[in-house]
Design brief:
- With 299 residues, this protein is α/β, with parallel strands linked by helices.
- It is built from twelve helices and ten strands.
- Helix content is 43%, strand content 16%.
- The chain is globular.
């Protein structure tokens, strides 16, 4: 029987994941206008920025300013890859932190020059310490389905990695189809197992739309019991360490699908498209997602 929840939560990742790899530097004031417009559209959870070395990710050099000048609405995440990033985020006043690791060793090595095991060893004391301070911790699991270098990733490996994070007390697992290769059957099976294994942890699905299957995968995850989804306004984003990976699934297309299925998000679709209008002039590629194109044609 086709069973769906009445409500779902969208975690908007455009300001961080969407812009992080944008080749053209976006001004802080333009980012802030984008964020404010997303909030006005009804977004209650958002990835704002990341505390990484400006040398490696110059787009995120204004992380402190973004945190300080963003209106405090709902839960606001900042990505923190290491202890230095965590300390800088906490000093800036951030209250919800995200850490990340790839299930695949090769992906992890190319991303942060550590094996998955080495990454987990480094993260364990940091996460335990953050939970002692009552900081909300989101664990982002990359290459949960497929790796661009190793191919298919076993469900057992993904479940084992998630189990470690849960044992350390994380509040949320964001499980990603990093290169957009998963299909709805795989989405349903993995997320059904994750929801069953970790019922007390917020479970979020993160899909890229490389092969135009992200919406189908979200529908499958919904049926598996997931009600939280990462998405990026305008479909912005990608991963420089994952050859062939395109942007995240577009928030506007996810919201449209959910609303048409009578799953409410609390997000105003027209206002969401207005937010995309604010950022589109400042990014390299034009936004061509389904609902945004329809919105522009009707304007």
């Amino acid at each position: 029987m086709f069973s769906l929840p009445k409500n779902a939560t969208i975690i908007e990742v455009g300001p961080r994941d969407g812009l992080q790899n944008e080749g053209k530097l976006v001004k802080t004031e333009d980012k802030l206008q984008f964020i404010a417009a997303l909030q006005q559209a009804g977004i209650q959870e958002m990835e704002l920025t990341s505390f990484v070395s400006p040398k490696w990710v110059p787009q995120m050099a204004d992380a402190k300013e973004i945190v300080a000048q963003t209106k405090k609405v709902g839960r606001q995440f900042v990505l923190t890859p290491n202890e230095r990033g965590i300390n800088a985020a906490l000093e800036s006043g951030a209250q919800s932190l995200a850490v990340f690791v790839g299930v695949s060793n090769t992906f992890n090595k190319k991303n942060i020059n550590k094996t998955t095991e080495e990454s987990m060893e480094a993260l364990k004391p940091l996460i335990i310490n953050l939970k002692k301070q009552d900081v909300f911790v989101r664990a982002c699991i990359s290459t949960a389905f497929y790796c661009p270098f190793e191919g298919a990733v076993s469900q057992e490996a993904t479940l084992a990695l998630c189990r470690q994070f849960v044992e350390w007390g994380v509040d949320e697992l964001s499980v990603a189809d990093t290169i957009g290769m998963a299909n709805p059957k795989e989405s349903y099976e993995l997320f059904a197992n994750l929801v069953e294994a970790f019922p007390d942890v917020l479970m979020t699905a993160h899909f890229h739309d490389t092969r135009r299957m992200a919406l189908a995968n979200i529908s499958a995850a919904l049926q598996a019991g997931v009600t939280r989804f990462d998405a990026s306004a305008g479909g912005l984003g990608g991963c420089p360490f994952a050859p062939g990976a395109t942007g995240n699934v577009a928030t506007e297309d996810v919201v449209n699908m959910l609303h048409r299925m009578d799953v409410q998000t609390g997000i105003d679709l027209d206002m969401l498209c207005q937010a995309i209008e604010k950022i589109e002039p400042h990014v390299t590629n034009p936004v061509t997602t389904g609902m945004y194109t329809l919105y522009k044609n009707q304007a």
